[in-house]
Amino acid sequence: MKIPQKTLTRSLLNTCTLFLLSLLHVNPLFAIPKDANIDETKVPKFTLPNPLVMGDGTPVTSSHQWSARRRGEILDLFREHVYGHAPDGLPKGLTYQVLKTVPDFLNGKASMKEIRVLFNGKKDGPKMDILLIVPQIKYKPVPAFIGLNFGGNHTILADPRITLSRSWMRPKKDGLVVDHQATEKSRGSSSGRWPVETIIDRGYALATIYYGDIDPDFDDDFKNGIQPLFYRDGQTKPAPNEWGSIGAWSWGLSRALDYFETDQDIDAKKIAVIGHSRLGKTSLWAGAQDQRFAIIISNDSGCGGAALSRRRFGEKVKRINTSFPHWFNDRFNDYNDYENALPVDQHELIALIAPRPVYIASAAEDQWADPKGEFLSGKYAEPVYSLFGKKGLESDQQPPIDHPTGDFIRYHIRTGKHDVTDFDWAQYLDFADRHLPKK
Ligand code: GCU
User: Fold this and answer.
1) Which helix (H) or strand (E) holds 359?
2) CA dihedral defined by 424, 148, 393, 52, rounded to 10 degrees?
3) Pocket of ligand 1, candidates 148, 316, 368, 370: which has the most ligand atoms within 8 Å of its Cβ, to mutate?
4) Which of ligand 1's atoms lies nearest the C-alpha of 319?
5) Secondary structure E strands in 170-321
6) In 106-260, where do the E strands start and end?
7) Chain-centre distance of CA 296, in angstroms?
8) Which H helix or E strand runs over 105?
9) CA distances (Å), 366 to each of 164, 203, 241, 352, in order?
């Protein structure tokens, strides 16, 4: 495949940006740009759009009105102005292939399966690999967690039987990625974020997919990834109101859910979707659109995720659109420095999940992601949950550090930095136990 010079230059620039941002990712406090506000007294005054008033001014007073009309209106606004519309239907030829089955995994506690999704049925076309680890217990089907990962499925656990990803990777230090390819050394390198054995011991299956399989995370004008499969005649990139990478990643999660509906080990009605950071933005958008996801978990998702855009705290719309021009749709750029003109704000993304349980997590040292703005999104989504008789956060104030609060909308801010920790997982597992009771 010949790559045009413009694309190469662009990709090089993006690689440098990504490297700088990966440093930022490691220690956001040090890297917060000077022009970003992290002073609560400087948060501007703003008025949020009201999820309970329809476009034509009619108040929404029942769950029926919400589900029949208002939900669709808000979903459409997010598609049009923020994440983009995903195409209808599936690409022609999409097929699922079981690549590998290992009956004796985690010392016999689990079985492992790798499922390849050929998006257009062609081996050399775009594809994603689902790693599925299922507890060996009598009572099947089991509920499951699914989450996209940053470095390849082989990074969640150091077991050589997991296929090493051959997909394009963002640069990483310490020899984990060389020339955009994962190395053997990277096996298990993100196991700290994936307590696989604990999840299995608690009776849940765990599925994961490398997000770059669906759309590689760099701005190449949408030449790779799944978008081209849907181009109309003569189309070369998504239209300004069509999907970007977050839209594509969340679409991939729904395709995994399609597969679970056919897998007898998995209870597809009990799937929790989890994501960290950009992948937390993705899990929220996946859960907002696809109501088959039973629980939605946002770990430190920040700007364009759980944090309210109008607060302009930490990362702002302009900044995210500049650093990552491919994540949202092009129309989202209209709101760079004009957040008040947005027809939605992120509390309505949480509201789209109602009445399903949603967990929003922040970290105390992650000011870039605006922990308070993440809490407030949950808070302002509560009226929609109330329509369904569901309790939300059960607190008007952001709770103290390490004190989770809430029922159907649950929130915590934990000690530490931008990351996924055992503390986070302990809360998510308890949350799932409560809302997805097992047989
Ligand atoms: C950057 C970006 C955030 C994003 C994060 C990540 O910090 O500014 O919006 O959440 O990367 O995904 O790691």
Assistant:
1) strand 358-363
2) 170
3) 368
4) 8
5) 177-178, 181-182, 205-210, 266-276, 295-299
6) 110-118, 127-135, 142-149, 177-178, 181-182, 205-210
7) 9
8) strand 95-105
9) 31, 31, 31, 25
Residue whose CA lies nearest to ligand 1 atom number 11: 25
CA atoms within 13 A on the CB side of 289: 27
8-state DSSP, 292: T
Question: How would DSSP label each residue in 12-26?
Answer: HHHHHHHHHHHHHHH
The domains of the chain, with CATH numbers, are 5-435 (3.40.50.1820)
Q: Which of 14, 19, 21 to mutate to test the pocket of ligand 1 (most atoms within 8 A of CB)?
A: 21
Ligand 1 pocket by C-beta < 6 Å: which residues?
21, 24-25, 277-278, 302-303, 315, 320, 323, 368
Rg value, the chain, Cα: 21
Nearest CA to ligand 1 atom 12: 278
What H or E segment, with its residue span, contains residue 373? helix 371-387
pLDDT tens for the 439 residues of the chain, in order = 344 454 444 545 544 444 444 444 444 445 789 889 999 999 999 999 999 999 999 999 999 999 999 999 999 999 999 999 999 999 999 999 999 999 999 999 999 999 999 999 999 999 999 999 999 999 999 999 999 999 999 999 999 999 999 999 999 999 999 999 999 999 999 999 999 999 999 999 999 999 999 999 999 999 999 999 999 999 999 999 999 999 999 999 999 999 999 999 999 999 999 999 999 999 999 999 999 999 999 999 999 999 999 999 999 999 999 999 999 999 999 999 999 999 999 999 999 999 999 999 999 999 999 999 999 999 999 999 999 999 999 999 999 999 999 999 999 999 999 999 999 999 999 999 999 987 6
Query: What one-letter code names the amino acid at 417?
Result: K
Instruction: Determine whether 418 is an active site residue.
Output: yes
Of the CA atoms within 13 Å of residue 418, those in its CB half-sphere come to 26
